[in-house]
Amino acid sequence: MEASFAGRFAGLTPLLRPRSVAVLGASADRLRIGGRPIAYMLDRGFGGAILPVNPNRSEIQGLRCYASLVELPERPDVAIVAVAAERAVAAVEELAAAGVRGAIVLTAGFAETGAEGAAAQTRMREVARASGMRLLGPNCLGLFNAPIGYFPIFSASFEGGWPLPGRIGIASQSGAFGTHLFVVARDRGIGTPVCITTGNEADVTIADAIGWMAQDEGIDVIAAYAEGFRDGDVLRAALAAAKEARKPVVMMKVGRSALGQAAASSHTAAIAADDRVAEAVLAEYGVARAASTEELLDIAYLATRRLYPAASTLGVLTVSGGGGVLIADAAEANGIAMPPMPAAAQARLRALIPFCAPANPVDCTAQVFNDLATVGTFLEETVAGGYTTLLIFFSQVGGAPSIAPRLHDHLAALRARHPDVLMVLSILAPSPLVAQYEALGYAVFADPTRAVVAIGAVGRIGAAFAAPPPAPAPALPAFALPAEHLSEPAAKQLLRRVGIAVSAEEVCQTEAQAEAAARQIGWPVVMKIVSPDIAHKSEIGGVVTGITSPGDVVRTHALLLERAAARAPHARIDGILVARHHSGVELIMGLARDPVFGPVAMVGAGGIFAEIMDDVALRSCPFGADTAQAMIRSLRCFALLNGARGRERADLGALAMMLARLSALGAAAGPRLLAVDLNPVIASADEAVAVDAVIVLRE
Amino acid sequence: MEASFAGRFAGLTPLLRPRSVAVLGASADRLRIGGRPIAYMLDRGFGGAILPVNPNRSEIQGLRCYASLVELPERPDVAIVAVAAERAVAAVEELAAAGVRGAIVLTAGFAETGAEGAAAQTRMREVARASGMRLLGPNCLGLFNAPIGYFPIFSASFEGGWPLPGRIGIASQSGAFGTHLFVVARDRGIGTPVCITTGNEADVTIADAIGWMAQDEGIDVIAAYAEGFRDGDVLRAALAAAKEARKPVVMMKVGRSALGQAAASSHTAAIAADDRVAEAVLAEYGVARAASTEELLDIAYLATRRLYPAASTLGVLTVSGGGGVLIADAAEANGIAMPPMPAAAQARLRALIPFCAPANPVDCTAQVFNDLATVGTFLEETVAGGYTTLLIFFSQVGGAPSIAPRLHDHLAALRARHPDVLMVLSILAPSPLVAQYEALGYAVFADPTRAVVAIGAVGRIGAAFAAPPPAPAPALPAFALPAEHLSEPAAKQLLRRVGIAVSAEEVCQTEAQAEAAARQIGWPVVMKIVSPDIAHKSEIGGVVTGITSPGDVVRTHALLLERAAARAPHARIDGILVARHHSGVELIMGLARDPVFGPVAMVGAGGIFAEIMDDVALRSCPFGADTAQAMIRSLRCFALLNGARGRERADLGALAMMLARLSALGAAAGPRLLAVDLNPVIASADEAVAVDAVIVLRE
């Protein structure tokens, strides 16, 4: 991470861990916006100074109250702004002038209300930026840092209980959802010591919150809720910092659907970057993307075990055959490897329980509970199978009072002997028993499918942590974009200059010219009638493929003109196009520019199915050939490139290098390059070549 | 439903609702297999006679014990068999001889252990069938019918509490999973009065259990767990009975098994894996298929509200913009319509709270909780939007002690005024508050995504309940399958006979013959070299398309022979194939035979993408053109047929009729017809025609 970003994230510390807090608009009413933060901090024993500011009172909730900022006995590290909207900008200006390092603006009525509010919010940001003060909000719920009793937040969610000790930090653009996450976590016994909600993000964004947590020693896992991103570079820096610190980021990014996007833009006025581009950037940094709040917490919870195997394999021990089938189904759906047990171990288990299924899932059958020593043997044998992750499905048997106490000892011994194995228990048991197993180091899930989903996500996190740094993007020769529009030939020339193969073709007027063009282009060629009046060439026989000799060229030239004369007698004929005939698998490649993340390269299945099947891989530019190859391999149509149905394998190296060069072009060309469209790209065993190319520049 | 099936399902009543129960292998130990059922029935006050049978004791758990079946004072309705495996068959024989109507065989050691056990199990079935006694198991956990205190089951799961009163019946092949479901339900406060686990299914299958529950007045919703099905007809009858009774079946179907050996060799069969056939049959009857245990219970729970709108629309009222975005995403992913609020209502809401988002999702913002009358207005306005289903997302605010009590009155009034609207509350609240809302008639979900998934499933259930009966399959002219293998021409002739268009073609030896063939076939034609030595015709220019005149045929004939002579001089030439050239969208259609469900028809995307993109629709045979059209419309490639990318629309009627006729052929041809493969089928605005056809018969 660049030092500038490290400093930027560290700059949030006055907001998160201040020694003194002023409250502008402080209230004596413990249920009001200006009252709740004070009440909470008093209740939770915040150790620093709490300095209420309210011109109408001398005392608030037992604290001395000050009439204005200038009367404060000390300069606070941070100020909570809970004044009316019309006074909030002035308050921020005063704070900046006084040299306060952080402002938490709970006041609403800014960009979310229209142009006037947006202008006020811009002013707020400018004031804060000019003074170096970090500003959270406006229109945010606030934040908490529970271990130090710091609660500059007006949520009612603490009425049901305080945050539990733990290692998960919550970063959320939505206040309601940030506290929803906290409440669900608390009610499941999961600790979330820090929660930051960013509201309108005039200054501090969710990326800043993630970046700060990446540096914070109290946080191991970051659970984030986002509707959109404002600055691609800050997000990248934050995610890179988290990855460097081996802190998983689990994110629920909403706004995938059209209706969701519309709702999101009306909600926080977040920039609507293409969800798929955001998805690609998140994937690049190993972010685990969750589909629901529960899944978000499931993954974060499992991640707090801090075991991130580089190449995850799952061993399953089940007391129910049905559970084993269900788990195997779910594992396959989640891309989790479940290699079989070693043959010798299988033989030993079969000797112990003849009707067990010892492969993997290992079904020990309910019979083992007649003799719990047998359970111990099954457990040890399954771990000895060498899996990085163990899932034990004991369902209600694991929680039954007649069994659980004796089972506990076996599970405790197992956990102690194999601290490096990620162990997950799927049992139906009362909370105290669940807590006991968690204290041993197990992650406990009631639902086996949810356990598998979380295991899959943590496996991908481990793979991302372990991945070597990607190869750099290829170096390109110097090139210049023209001042004007790029014609098709000029576009192709530019592409060739940067090493992207583009098919050769020539419009010819005579047989001799066609013959010469074909010799120059190389065999085989395809020949086509060129006429503005013939839309569907093939319907009049106006396309001939597979031409491999000069004689064929001459014959075909005559044939095409003859057909045109007979079947489209009134068509104007511009000539005969001679083009290299490329045969192979059709793909598309392209570049586009995302408003948040900049140039993005894509590759997808070609032909008529491209759009319909939505078989596309995206990545922000630039990237190297290894990344390009991974993108191509991720396509469903990759099987066609890889020898499916008796085909020759395509030259994947050439294809990947083409895509990597395209990405380098996207990065190097600057913002004037709006789009590149290579459609189709033909991939064969010999080559990867763009048959058609369009480049769009900003005029 | 046929009367025979109604009688078959009613025949389970002695198993489910007996007046007297014998226990063979009764035990005094309340924790043993032969002891638990007696202990449970005593604890739960089973009203009928409990008759322990054990030659070694005169009293068991306070009941008189009998030495053998013949000594019983009465003939029991049902007997629980908990004796050792080697004595179980004899016990079943005795029961059958004594005229007992039902046997529940808990004993294990039968088909699950190998050939010998399977033989014993077959004997058991034969004995039962011959006497008309219904037999549950062997190797099953048993069942319970809680309202009558009837617990012929040895699960330990009751140690954590008894089943709650309610309207959901559980049918499960797996004993462990059946009780897993019961425990999860119980711990969520959901009542499951009946649970039937079917084990090895020698006689009673999960389909019987579903069929019985379809008739039982105590059950409104059937939650099923299945690994596979044994008899397609019984399953169909059971699902039809449930649908007729408007009882939703929610099913978790895990695992896969291979299709029949012969069918697997054809291309269609390879695509038509067994699980997809089952999926298609389940879909036919409106079964909601759940992906996890939690989802199964979520859907069943929501279904107990017994509101099944025919055309479901969802209105969302949210206190959090973020929650609205998340719900909109989830609704789109689940195919739920969320039409916008009427414009006038939007204007009224905006007048009330200027910064609200009144479209749908309706974001009332947290501000409404300052004045709860406003919440009431928002609630009423949203319902007045005319939605069949209302989802109210109040998260932790809905459970906060400072708000919840006043909110309750508004929600109670709303519920009372609109009893026909399916109302779902997503709140984080303590169980007693959740129970209060449930008592009002709300379904309550903590997680909004789970609520949306369940709403989507119940919407599909409602649509299935309301769907008109499908059109009958088309009548076919009489046809006969040959005794022998069907040659390609014979196969095409058979297809033409039943009204399926097959492309015309002819292998010709002379120019004149080719010309005549082309005239006969109709223009345009395609011509191809036919040679056993030329695998890739197009590589030597051996395929010419777009031939539209006799002169072209003659010229092309010469050209093809010339190219072959020049480029494949040693190839044997069998002639020149002249075929009608069809252009349009490529599809595949086929028939396969499923071992459980019989003939299955499929349609899918054609060309090289067929397998890779897995774009296929299946249905068991026969069906009418409306069903065929729905199948075609369900394909992702349907856009190509429907005018995407400037194409003409394909003749969907012809295509659907072709598929319907194929299905009628599958149903009429009998089990000798193993597979039909039409690949490709070309669909255009003018026609739907099979270009190649293979029919596989059992020799």
Protein architecture, described:
Two copies of one chain form a homodimer. Chain A has about 700 residues and is an alpha/beta fold. Chain A has four domains: about 5-305, NAD(P)-binding Rossmann-like Domain (Rossmann fold, 3-Layer(aba) Sandwich), CATH 3.40.50; about 315-465, Succinyl-CoA synthetase domains (Rossmann fold); about 505-580, ATP-grasp fold, A domain (Dna Ligase, domain 1, 2-Layer Sandwich), CATH 3.30.1490; about 585-695, D-amino Acid Aminotransferase, Chain A, domain 1 (2-Layer Sandwich). The first copy, chain A, is about 40% helix and about 20% strand. The first copy, chain A, has 24 helices and 28 strands. In chain A, the strands form six sheets. Chain A has a six-stranded mixed β-sheet, sandwiched between helices. The longest helix of chain A is centred in the middle third of the chain and has 19 residues, at about 450-465. The first copy, chain A, is flat and about 100 Å long. The mean pLDDT of chain A is about 90. Chains A and B meet through α6, α9, α12, α17 and β21 of A and α6, α13, α18, β21 and α21 of B.
Number of helices of chain A: 24
Q: What is the overall silhouette of chain A?
A: flat
- The overall number of domains of chain A is 4
Instruction: Report the end-to-end length of chain A measured between terminal Cα atoms.
Output: 35 Å
Helix content of chain A: 25-40%
- Tell me how many strands of chain A there are: 28
Mean pLDDT, all residues of chain A: 91
| Most extensive chain interface and residues per partner | A-B, 96 and 94 residues
CATH 4th-level superfamily of the largest domain in chain A: NAD(P)-binding Rossmann-like Domain
CATH-assigned fold name of the largest domain in chain A: Rossmann fold
CATH classification, class level of the largest domain in chain A: Alpha Beta
Question: pLDDT below 50 for ≥5 consecutive residues: which ranges of chain A?
Answer: none
Radius of gyration of chain A: 32 Å
Beta-strand percentage range of chain A: 15-25%
Largest sheet of chain A: 6 strands, mixed
Strands ordered across the widest β-sheet of chain A: 8-10-9-11-12-13
Query: What does the oligomeric state look like here?
Result: homodimer
